[in-house]
Design goal:
18% of the residues lie in helices and 33% in strands. It has 329 residues and is α+β, with helices and mostly antiparallel strands. The strands form 2 sheets. It has an 8-stranded mixed beta sheet with strand order 2-3-4-1-13-16-15-14. The termini are far apart. The chain has a single domain, classed as 2,3-Dihydroxybiphenyl 1,2-Dioxygenase, domain 1. InterPro entries: Extradiol_RC_dioxygenase, Glyas_Bleomycin-R_OHBP_Dase, Glyas_Fos-R_dOase_dom, VOC_core.
Length: 329
């Protein structure tokens, strides 16, 4: 079997929200991410699918949400992504704490982790999120969006995800198969269970890390939890080689599924976390010009033929803009 090309890291993270307008307001206006795609859940077209990212929707920057308003509140536990962390420039956490104070965001004291400063907080649905101060290299592939926050403090894509697992060892083996390398272990801090946090690093610079913590704490899916985490397999060939390698780990990945902006393979890994493999192309600009990303409801493929029916079933939402925000002040 051909060894797969190591993954560069995280492609996107998809979560479950409640109220869609609340979700838009927080992730666009408060956190300063760009809505790069406004669409529907292709497996449940009665629900929105929002994609928040950097200015160009660069792989490794998009946090996406299914706002299922009728689901109950979730609880993070074993077999889930327990926290999603974003990179921010060094020296920017003072700005973010002040912004969180101004916007009533629930956050915790900073912690030090693997030599980096981390600011944990929660979105309005209770989703655990973190900002991690890092040095942003001059050739960094991310492009900050600056409608609500300035470039020197803007979020610059993913830093990491943390997985809570009852038995971490099979998942650690899978990560090695995917091209991650174990780079360190330290005592867990903060509100996370377990005695040790183990960090794995991918080959890229954005969304590079996966942290693993052992826990048997029970959880349930719902508002404020992660639905799945997607990893970059840039080409179809990369993806198929990775799919076969994952099959060699005794798992049962799906066939490739066309998700319109990327092609995907899904697998429930050993500990219960849903993993996705996602290609780089076609990308978010394949159906909208860069300047217009997120400006309209995009209905992939045959869903366009059902536009009237689908739009009638979706709640009205307004995408925050700097002009409307100023008018509200």
């Amino acid at each position: 079997m051909t060894e797969p090309t190591p993954t560069p890291g995280i492609h996107h993270v998809t979560c479950i929200a409640g109220d869609p307008q609340q979700n838009l307001d927080f992730w666009v206006e408060t956190l300063g991410l760009r809505l790069v795609k406004r669409s529907i859940n292709q497996d449940d077209p009665s629900t929105y699918h929002f994609f928040f990212a950097d200015a160009e929707g660069t792989p490794g920057t998009s946090m996406t949400f299914f706002p299922w308003s009728d689901l109950p509140q979730g609880k993070v536990g074993s077999g889930q992504v327990s926290r999603t962390a974003f990179r921010v420039p060094e020296g920017s956490l003072d700005f973010w704490e002040a912004r969180f104070d101004d916007h009533g965001v629930d956050y915790d004291d900073r912690v030090e982790r693997f030599g980096e400063t981390v600011l944990p907080f929660r979105d309005p649905d209770g989703l655990p999120v973190e900002l991690v101060e890092v040095e942003i290299p001059e050739d960094d592939p991310t492009v900050p969006w600056t409608e609500f926050v300035s470039e020197d403090v803007a979020i610059r894509g993913f830093h990491s995800v943390t997985l809570w697992l009852a038995d971490p060892h099979p998942t650690m083996g899978l990560l090695r198969t995917m091209g991650f390398e174990e780079v360190g272990t330290e005592e867990a801090q903060g509100d996370t269970p377990g005695d040790e946090r183990t960090r794995f690093a991918a080959t890229g610079t954005v969304g590079q890390y996966v942290d693993i913590l052992p826990t048997i704490e029970g959880g349930r899916q719902g508002h404020g939890t992660v639905h799945h985490v997607a990893f970059q397999t840039p080409t179809d060939e990369d993806q198929e080689a990775m799919r076969e390698a994952i099959r060699g780990e005794g798992l049962n990945p799906t066939q490739q599924i066309d998700r319109h902006w990327f092609r995907s393979v899904y697998v429930r890994e050993h500990g219960g976390v849903l993993f996705e493999l996602a290609t780089k192309d076609p990308g978010y600009t394949s159906d909208e010009p860069l300047d217009d990303l997120g400006g309209r409801l995009v209905l992939p493929g045959s869903f366009e033929d059902r536009r009237e029916e689908i739009e009638a079933g979706l709640p009205d939402v307004t995408v925050p803009g700097a002009d409307t925000a100023e008018a509200d002040d």
